Amino acid sequence: MTTTTTTTTPTTSTKTDAPKQNSQTSDTWTLYGKTFESRFLLGTALYPSPQSMLDAITASQTDIVTLGLRRQNPANRDGQIIWDMIQQTGCTLLPNTAGCKSAKEAITLAQMSREIFGTNWIKLEVIGDDYTLQPDPFALLEATKELLSQGFAVLPYCTDDLILCQKLAEAGCEVLMPWGAPIGTGQGLLNKYQLGTLRKRLPDIPLIIDAGLGAPSQACEAMEMGFDGILLNTAVAKAQNPPQMAHAFGTAIQAGRAAYKAGLMLKKQTASASTPTIGQPFWHQKK
Description:
The protein has nine helices and ten strands. The protein has a single domain (35-262), classed as Aldolase class I (TIM Barrel, Alpha-Beta Barrel), CATH 3.20.20.70. α1 (50-60) packs parallel to α2 (78-89), α1 packs parallel to α9 (242-262) and α4 (137-149) packs parallel to α5 (162-171). By secondary structure, the protein is of the alpha/beta class. It has helices spanning 50-60, 78-89, 103-117, 137-149, 162-171, 192-201, 216-224, 234-237, 242-262, and strands at residues 29-31, 34-36, 40-43, 64-68, 92-96, 121-124, 153-158, 177-178, 208-210, 229-232. The protein has a five-stranded parallel beta sheet. The chain has a three-stranded parallel beta sheet with strand order 6-7-8. The model is unreliable at 1-25 (pLDDT under 50).
């Protein structure tokens, strides 16, 4: 594993003290004691250039961005450039343990991230399968318990398995991040029944859909189901126009959240005419 010994002094985000004023929503939420306005969390990998990444972050109006320590490259300082740009945005940094395949490896990388970036927040990833990049539930739970005991604010990337999510919550996680589909597939919400079950059975814990979304409509649907936020990377970074796609996702997330708060109509098996008397406007009907 290649790491850097950057001497950059981490800056403290001011998002909690002075939330960004977003004219399209005033619906704040709290994660590990920090309050945010945007429910869109954006990754910083795979963009065609650092400037494209920065433009996408700005267009998304996100408050939280993720960054993997493995991206730090002391040979050409690409990682330092990205880190400097992220600091300029004022967004809260969520380091991740992407690429780790064991609890021990993830714990070590989390400790290094805390020292380098100056934050106890960590997006915990422990991959168990190289083909689907599915999280290893056993190693994930092991690493979660250890990092929580060390004072980390753990946001675990997990599957939509109810039992695993319950155990992560029981261990002390204040946020869970179940996948919608395998990372980078763009398949959307593959198991809506299971995701709906998670939302119903864990009503008091923030749930963020993480991974597998490919279109803004999919993010909107997840928010309509009552999920609290969306974390994605590939769908924006690999779009033909990343900043424009970031804006599209941000708008879709806001729309889905607004629809959920408004209350969707109940689905029916039979048709129900909106005008009771066929062909006659309601104002012509006798009372």
